[in-house]
Design goal:
Length: about 180
Amino acid sequence: MGPRTGGTAPRGRDLRRFLAGYERFLLSLLDAEFEHFFADELYELAEFALTGGSLTAALRSEGALRSLQSLWSRPFLATHAARPTLQDALQATDLLEHALRPLAVQPPSRGVAHAVTGGLAVLPGLTARRFHGVPLLLSEHGIYLRERYLSYRTAPYRWPVKALILGFFRLLATEGYRARI
């Protein structure tokens, strides 16, 4: 059984806090100058998901969608020139929400976490390491990031969507390598 994907989005102060962190997370995916936000905001999303918040509902909220639309249309980002559409934002949100679902799984609190790829499979290991000090062993049986780049070359998404998702996979691989034993 996968993580709980129902629930309701946060409101009020919790929503504002979530959206501020989510905007920093998105910014890290789209601009190299803000990559330093990625790890902290990834773990904030994990903490939100693990402490009873519905990450799926929060990511699919109108506020999160508006944050993405506003952010990637900023003139200093390369995505601005592509004039991202609402359809782009919906597709990117869907892909990102699906990729982040493993954050809602309770990570192991002891032993050694072993991931066989630097991609999505490393997410539970990263959260186990961050929240419980569990060592993370990473062994790649292929180059996951390269495979994502190749697969998205022919994917049916516009460039802004690809830029966001490939930014996520790139920074996730970086964090996985950084956090391993």
